[in-house]
Design a protein that fits this description.
eight-stranded parallel beta sheet, about 45% helix, 13 helices, alpha/beta
Length: about 300
Amino acid sequence: MAHNIFKGLGIALITPFLEDGSVDYKSLIRLVEYQLNNGADFFCILATTGETPTLSAEEKSKIKNLIVDLVGGRVPILMGCGGYNTAAIVEELQTGDFRGIDGILSVCPYYNKPSQEGLYQHFKTIAAATTMPVVLYNVPGRTGVNMTAATTVRLAHDCDNIVAIKEASGNLEQVDEIIKNKPKKFDVISGDDSLTFPMISCGAVGVISVIGNALPREFSKMIRLQMKGEYDGARKIHHRFIDLFSLLFVDGNPAGVKCMLSEMGYIENVLRLPLVPTRISTRQRLSEIMKELKI
């Protein structure tokens, strides 16, 4: 029976671009090393924050191989593999190159808005198509459909290799319901930086984080303190970051964190259309808060 190895601080890795729009592999290497040296427990690659829909097949392959080689087994790697065509995902799982990958993150089908039974059958089919651990990803703000706690728990009980869910519904009652009814081998991972503290308090085992791209040391410290039951220290870090959390997403993701990383000198502030950089006012406010926090 598969178990979940994706715990603690997971980085939802960005894809840096040069001014001409090409992938900045040099900055990517520097960024991954910075995160590994500052508390990253696992990586989540080629998912939403990585602007994956705008990457070519060749770029995706090169990024995946680069990160696998660079990480060298030091921490687990979770790779995005999802969509709204079940058969196409099954084909990708059966023919794609997953060497060096420790599990897949599969988002709820978006745009075509399946029923709960449709979601159940979709993920059951995906789980049956691979021997790798599968992490479900519920993010109704992006997909247009919420996978209920009952559907999540049903999948967790029925599919041995469905090991966790990245839960980004923003609904703590739903998180509670999953944690209360899930099988022992199944975990909940926060999909919202701002809700990581309350979700871990409820029993989640970590986060797949956007802010972790820029501030892995601080964010991993909060999680480690919480896991040891040192809630006061963890709460202080959570409260320090509250203003940052809202600013990070006000102009969309990953515009906010790319702006931060650009201010820190790690990357150029470039996104691929249809995404664009943050507004100047957001950048100025981010810069002010980073100075206040001494980042």
